[in-house]
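Aim 2 progress update. The chain analyzed this quarter is reproduced below.
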Amino acid sequence: MASSRKPTATSAVVIFEPADGVDYTRALAGSDRPGMMAVTGMALMLLSLYFVSPAISGAVNGIGWLLRGKPGSIDDFVATANAFGYPEGVLASFLAIASFIGIAMLSMRFIHRQSPKWLASVQPGMRWRYLVIVAVVAAIVFNIVYWATSGRTDFHWAPPPNAWVYVVIIVLVGPLQAAGEEYFFRGYLQQLIGAVLTQRWIVVGVSALLFTTTHGTQNLPLLLDRFVFGALLGALVVMTGGLEAAIAMHAVNNIFAFGYPALSGTLVAARAISEVSWGMAGVNILAYVVIAGLAWLIGRAMRVATTTPR
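Predicted structure tokens:
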């Protein structure tokens, strides 16, 4: 039977470590008031989702508006930027979501009195070699599936004059945006729910459902597409003991999902997508399943830790 959380002294502050031999979703279990901690943490993340992130996005777009010499009203500029009509809008959106990395870490440290390194993995800490290997595999599989299906007919080389700016932002900042979502949904959120619920697959399902519902209007195939994506990422976190595979898979998906439209002049349409066909959803889900399976096999081959140290 796993022991309770273990306190260790760091200067004048007591830092708790997870119990021995528990999976990722139970890293916050064992506190004196898990329910109250979960409610407090959830309230903070919702506050960040609806106030902090929009404030960051608004600030970045506002700076863009000023640097461009105040073209038209700021409301019109922000609306166009948020639709990815300006590169500033992409940067603003990505940085706003990337802020969840820092918010989740601060929550772990000051609300739960636990080191943020346990958010990365049960090792603890980020296993960078594993992350990079999964990212390379994901990039290969995504491109094989894309060019074997829709890429042959949908992609047309027609980059706008400022396409290079979009591509730089997507490639350099896009992974931070993906990591922000993973730290929020598969990291902090799964550990919060897991502190109260012991059924880890229910935790994964709840996280995937919340992830899906935050993506706005979507038809049934697109909703299923995103739910399966979130559920597979959550399952990967449980089965590999950390966020690395989920971050790698999510980052690669976003780079190509936005990168190819940026090079074909269809980024605004890609940003506004609210429906896909059942066939497209099926192709996407097939790619997700293959990549998740390979990521799990790579993790087993590398013997990544799946539970906290005993």
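The two ends are 11 Å apart (CA to CA). The beta strands are 6-10, 13-17. These observations will guide the mutagenesis experiments scheduled for the next reporting period.
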